């Protein structure tokens, strides 16, 4: 199929494009840079609405902790600008481009909000929807409209901005967004616990999260995954690694790390550079990426002397093996995480790791026809699973997003019809007919 790209450079032109599509009865594949095009069901249409031309920061009020930018503004422009003012998007937006074999740094603000994804700090700071204050966009009727505002107290009625987060462009063509920013932590340290099995690791993470020490990251890397880290203090353990992150002002971080190290029996503490590097790997699912990761940042002094099993070196593993694997994002009750992981390993050829204190499992699974049923069968009613990476022919046929109960699906259809009654915007991206 020949695909024609429509690239507006203003909100008015985006509205014209939607009105044209509506008059022609032809659907639009709504996209920004396309860095997450591999996530979701493929769109069957001859026209792509490319929003990358809607780029630029409209207003950055650092003192008010508010940023307004057009939807196609690259995150590679936004994040350094925030860092200069020692600020951040606290939900840690993921860069999944490399997971799909694309260069890093190509995501846009609109894509970040539309996908609704968040990194390890999700457990303490919330997700993208919790930081989205206002939106401007074009609905499926071709109407330009606004929702929300620059501060939470200005929001009345339905909270449309939060509805857009995670809608994958099926409800509105986002043209401009206002998001909340927060101060970046002055310091960060990570406690490392070596050699814990899944159940013991999740128990330690739960204890850390329930402690009064304000933990902002809690993850567990089984041995095969930890070995592929480019942080040598992690890969050099030669076994499973459990990680607990503490952020904030320097003296506070020092005191909290000391207390947690004693309570958890941690084996080492990663410094700032090591911490930033390993949590970036965890955030961006770098362990399952087909492209090479950045080179090692540190030598891992504290763990160089720890023994490693024979045949296991630092940063080992066959990266090419993971490019052909399907990648699943599995949300589960943390207490059920080890059981679900063991069930998946028993049924499938799978490697996985835990984030969010055991409440999120990332799994790289060898392709088999029964993988989806095995994973969702292992979950039962304990959570849900999303197929994040797989070839297009698989995603056309598969239930990429977790099946919804009938009442929830009926509600989703009504919401879709209210914003896009003719099904013009990204039809079927999430669910068939929605």
From TrEMBL:
Residues 1-184 form the FAD-binding PCMH-type domain. GO terms for molecular function: catalytic activity; FAD binding. InterPro entries: FAD-bd_PCMH, FAD-bd_PCMH-like_sf, FAD-bd_PCMH_sub2, FAD-linked_Oxase-like_C, Oxid_FAD_bind_N. The keyword Nucleus does not apply. Residues 296-325 are annotated as: Disordered. The keyword Flavoprotein applies. Keywords: FAD, Flavoprotein. This is FAD-binding protein. It comes from Azospirillum argentinense.
């Amino acid at each position: 199929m020949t695909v024609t790209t429509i690239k507006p450079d203003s909100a008015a032109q985006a509205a014209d494009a939607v009105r044209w599509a509506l008059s022609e009865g032809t659907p639009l594949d709504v996209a920004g840079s396309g860095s997450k095009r591999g996530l979701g069901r493929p769109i069957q249409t001859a026209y792509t609405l490319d929003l990358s031309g809607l780029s630029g920061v409209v207003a950055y009020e650092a003192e008010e902790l508010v940023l307004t930018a057009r939807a196609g503004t690259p995150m590679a422009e936004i994040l350094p600008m925030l860092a200069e003012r020692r600020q951040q998007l606290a939900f840690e937006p993921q860069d999944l481009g490399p997971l799909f074999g694309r260069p890093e740094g190509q995501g846009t603000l609109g894509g970040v909000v539309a996908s609704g994804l968040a990194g390890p700090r999700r457990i303490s700071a919330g997700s993208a929807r919790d930081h989205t204050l206002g939106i401007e966009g074009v609905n499926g009727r071709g109407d330009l409209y606004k929702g929300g505002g620059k501060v939470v107290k200005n929001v009345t009625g339905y909270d449309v901005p939060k509805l857009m987060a995670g809608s994958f462009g099926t409800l509105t063509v986002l043209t401009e967004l206002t998001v909340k920013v927060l101060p970046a932590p002055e310091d960060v340290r990570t406690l490392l616990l070596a050699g814990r099995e899944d159940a013991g690791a999740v128990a330690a993470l739960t204890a850390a999260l329930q402690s009064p020490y304000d933990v902002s990251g809690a993850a567990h890397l089984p041995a095969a995954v930890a070995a592929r880290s480019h942080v040598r203090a992690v890969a050099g353990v030669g076994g499973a690694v459990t990680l607990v992150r503490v952020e904030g002002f320097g003296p506070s971080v020092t005191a909290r790390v000391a207390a947690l190290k004693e309570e958890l029996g941690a084996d080492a503490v990663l410094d700032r550079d090591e911490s930033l590097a390993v949590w970036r790997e965890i955030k961006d699912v770098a362990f399952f990426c087909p492209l090479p990761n950045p080179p090692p940042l540190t030598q891992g002094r504290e763990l160089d002397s720890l023994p490693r099993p024979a045949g296991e070196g630092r940063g080992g593993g066959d990266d090419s093996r993971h490019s052909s694997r399907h990648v699943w994002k599995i949300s589960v009750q943390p207490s059920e995480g080890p059981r679900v992981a063991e069930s998946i390993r028993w049924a499938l050829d799978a490697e996985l790791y835990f984030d969010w204190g055991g409440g999120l499992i990332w799994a790289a699974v060898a392709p088999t026809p029964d993988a989806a049923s095995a994973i969702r069968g292992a979950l039962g009613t304990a959570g849900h699973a999303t197929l994040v990476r797989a070839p297009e022919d698989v995603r056309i046929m598969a239930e990429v997003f977790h099946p919804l109960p009938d009442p929830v699906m009926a509600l989703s259809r009504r919401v879709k019809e209210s914003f896009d009654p003719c099904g013009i915007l990204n039809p079927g991206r999430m669910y068939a007919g929605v």
